[in-house]
Amino acid sequence: MADKVKKRYLFPEDFMADPSVHVFDGKLYIYPSHDWESAAPDDDFGSEYDMKDYHVLSLEGPDPMTSPVKDNGVALDIKDVPWARRQLWDNEVVKGRDGKYYMYFPAKDKTDIFRCGVAVSDSPTGPFKAMPDPIRGSYSIDYAILHDDADDEYYMYFGGIWGGQLQRYEDNLAKDNGTSYPADGQPAIPARVVKLAKDMLQFAEEPKPVVILDEDGTPIKVEDNERRFFEASWMHKYNGKYYFSYSTGDTHKLCYAIGDNPYGPFTYKGVILTPVFGWTTHHCIVEYNGKWWLFHHDSGISKGINRLRSLKVCELKYNPDGTIRTIEGMDE
Ligand code: FUB
């Protein structure tokens, strides 16, 4: 049974999606993708998501359900990223040990391969200055970062199949043109996790698979579309446990799995959000002012146009055993 909870459209003035949310010095900032009505074709490669810039939103008050949301303008434009050709997808921003703000973003390079760019700013609202090249050895999409209070390290979670190109990679090497998938019965293609280097500009190690186990301790399989990882990683900690959450893509759910450390393995626990109105589903989970919040998007305002999505927020609750209460996505 899913809970019907009150939701808020955070910024109905413009189409934005893929929220990554962080609280810096007590203030809440939202880092979304910036949708627009591009003429790019609608296909399984996600060509319709043809975004060109990022804006940073900030919450001007204590309550995500009611406080005003401010658009702080363009934080990064694709024309200022020397290596990027198209498609600025989901971005992530963290505060480094040096007090600067680091934005991580996917874009297709001149050969149409997704890489992870880094851009730096002195302010959480930007503008961000892009590094001349993407991170060495980076690939695929949807970079989300945990700054772990246990060891003061930054762990990046990433990947997305189909248009996100994750199926191209094995042992971190490109193996084909993205058209082959493991056979049914094999473990599903995993998201990846990698520790960032101390300078925040490169990986400190080779990315590793994020293994999601079912209740029997067996990796979730390729054909298990209701539970397998598709895209949109997020990591948060609750009561010392590591909660890896993600989208199941073509079955349109947000699910989660719990582990004891940032690398996993993680054990599948259930659904956070049932399908929303629109194809993609993408989220983050953040504690703010003593409550937990689920930020996500749907295509409700555009009446179902997948490339025109809108940001939403609602409260998220845990059961006493640490599991997350499932929220109904389609409630309006
Ligand atoms: O916004 C483009 C892509 O759509 C994101 O990277 C995915 O997570 C999906 O929301």
UniProtKB/TrEMBL annotation:
Q: What is this protein called?
A: Beta-D-xylosidase/alpha-L-arabinofuranosidase
Tell me the Gene Ontology biological-process terms attached to this UniProt entry.
Answer: xylan catabolic process
| Family stated for the protein in its record | Belongs to the glycosyl hydrolase 43 family.
Q: Which GO terms describe its molecular function?
A: hydrolase activity, hydrolyzing O-glycosyl compounds
- What keywords appear on the UniProt entry? Carbohydrate metabolism, Glycosidase, Hydrolase, Polysaccharide degradation, Xylan degradation
| Annotated site residue numbers, Important for catalytic activity, responsible for pKa modulation of the active site Glu and correct orientation of both the proton donor and substrate | D142
Against Pfam families, the record matches this protein to: Glyco_hydro_43 (PF04616)
